[in-house]
Every structure is written in C-alpha cells, then in structure tokens.
Specification:
- With 374 residues, the protein is of the alpha/beta class.
- It contains 12 helices and 10 strands.
- Strands 2-1-3-4-5 form a 5-stranded parallel sheet, sandwiched between helices. It has a 5-stranded parallel sheet with strand order 7-6-8-9-10.
- Strand 6, helix 10 and strand 7 form a beta-alpha-beta unit.
- It binds 5-amino-5-deoxy-1-O-phosphono-D-mannitol.
- The site of 5-amino-5-deoxy-1-O-phosphono-D-mannitol (M6R) has 16 residues, from helix 4.
Amino acid sequence: DKQHFRHFMLKEIHEQPETVELWLSKHLPIHAPIDSPIVLPYDASFYESIEQIQILACGTSRHAGMVGAYLLEQFAGIRTSVFFASEFRYAPPPLSPHTLTIGVTQSGETADTLAALSMEHQRRSVLDNNDFASFQLGITNSSESSLALQVPNILDIGAGIEVGVAATKTFLGQLLAFYGLAISFAARRKSRSQEEINALCEELRSIPKQLKDLVKEHNQLAESLAHRFADTEDVIFLGRGINYPIALEGALKLKEISYIHAEGYPAGEMKHGPIALLDQRVPVISIATEGIVFEKVLSNAQEAKARDASLIGICPQTVETQIFDSLLPIPKVSEWISPLLTVIPMQLLSYYIAAQRGLDVDQPRNLAKSVTVE
Ligand code: M6R
C-alpha cells in the first residue's frame, strides 16, 4: 500500500529514518561492550584471521559495496576490493589466502552475484590448504532468498519490502551493514582508537533524527529544483573519496527512472575527458562534504563553472559553497558518515525529475526488481 504517497519509491525514501532506527536498535545497542559495540554473529577469531576482503555485487548494491570498501580500508585498515559480479565470474583475481568474500544483493536473487559467489566457493574448495578456505558472507534484504540458501552467513539488513525497482532504503540498509562490519573490524583489531570508534557510533545514533529532517526539507527542495530539468538531456555527477560511489548512485538512479543520460565521475577525473561535455545545457551535481577532499571538490566544481555548466552542490551551507548556483544543503557531519545523508537529495531529485516527466517511476522500462538471468 502506497499510503498517501504517489509512488512506492517516494514512500520508501521516506521510510529510511525508520530503516536506520531499526538497524541501530538491533546492531548498536546502548549497553553493548565497549570493545565490540556492534552486535554481529561472529567471534573474535573471525575478525583477527581475515587479511583481505572482496566484495561482489551489481548495480546499486555494488555502490554500497564501494562505500563499504572505503570504510573497511580507510577506517578499519583491511585491504578490500570491489568487483562487478558479472566481471568477477569470468576474470577473478588470483587466489589470495585468508580472504573474506562478501556478496551484496538486496533481493538475494541476482544471477550474476549468486554465480560469482558459487564460482569463488568452488575454486577455493579444490585447494586443500586451509588458508584458502572459502568464508563467505551475504548482505541481503531477504533471509529467504536463494542467497540465504547458498551462503551460510547472512547479514539481513531488515529494511522491509521494497517495491520500487529503484533501490533506496535497501541501499541505506546495505550501507549500515558495512558501517557495522567496519566498526567491528576496527574495534576487534584495534586499528582505530576507542575515541574514534565511539565517535562514529555516536554519529550513527544521531542519523535517524537528521534523516527525518533531511527527507522533509529535501522533498520540497528537490521538487522545485526538478522543474529545471524539464529539457535536460545529460547530467554529470561528481564526488570524491567516500562520496564517489554516491555520485555513481545518483547517476544510476537518474538514468534508471528518468531515462536522462547521466554519468558519475570522481571529481578529479573531470579534466581527463568529461569536461569536454560541459556547456550551459549540462547540469553538474557535485557532492562536497567537509573532509580531506573538500577543497579539491570545490576547485573541480569551479572548473565546471568556468565551462558555463550550471552547478548544483550537495554540501553544507558555508562561505566556500557559495560557488554553487543551487544548493541542496546537508548538515555538517564527519566525512565517514556523510554518504548516509548525501544520498537523500540524489534519490529525491531523481524521483521528482522522473515523476514530473510523467514516467512510471516504480516500474521503469526494460527493468525488473530482480535480475535472475545472466
Ligand atoms: O537485488 P540486487 O541488489 O542484487 O540488485 C542489483 C541491481 O540489479 C540493482 O541494484 C539495480 O541496479 C537497481 N534497480 C538499482 O536501483
């Protein structure tokens, strides 16, 4: 039931504060032990023995995996790679010992992801060296899926049924699973100080309230900004660091439901080709959150502005961010936590652009909710 919402996608975007609240109550309880603040069903040896992680996924789930890889590497200090499941199947990297393979699929039914996981299990199990044993973890929104039958360890994101073909609340749920894993690895391996771990946990606890305000505010902002995209044919999304995958996700959401050509780029790559596309007809949507790449993203945005592109910033409202022609403001938070907020304006803007074009937002052409063929 869509309740009072026009589409399931809009309803599901609005459900995200609740998705986080539920996840936090289950996995980040207030009285959890200080050295293991996150409740996950793994023992200490799991966290200590793993040397590297590989993440296999498709579409939006792969973008969640990319944010996850950033957290696992930069916050928890574990070498992590992300693969398109469809590529991994036919060109896996050489086997490495003590490797955890994580399959991310909200439906738990994506053929390429299931096949990549099964191929990886197979090639590890023929080696009779314990170091290469196949340890697999599945992150999904369906504990009854084919993934759950295939992979013994499942992290259920518990986001509830998602009807819209465009993944929104399940993406957020997948991000949370990775925050949980990264914090657990960092706490158990002591790769971060207790203060840093507590600070991240505290920030996570503040997210539901911030999300509630943000969804409300951006619902209106995105609706009025969307009118400017009535004749737009191409859009460039820029982000860096932990928000680069959010730029990719913004582009995927937009093309999937509005059929507008959109590309996500790491902002520093602009000058290596895509800048040639820019003129006054091409909006550039840039994520600029405070952190190590803040100044860099602003200067990349400035380069786009010099080519007459109209600039939209997803960033805090500060003196520096006045360079943007329009702002989709987000609160000042640490860079670590920012993807949980920056994705909201992306989702709402895509939604309103598609809805104003009169398109079938929940059932876009040529797409299905789960892709069960190769
Ligand atoms: O069910 P999965 O998470 O495995 O689905 C993967 C992709 O097909 C999916 O994320 C697709 O890109 C979505 N329609 C994105 O909104």
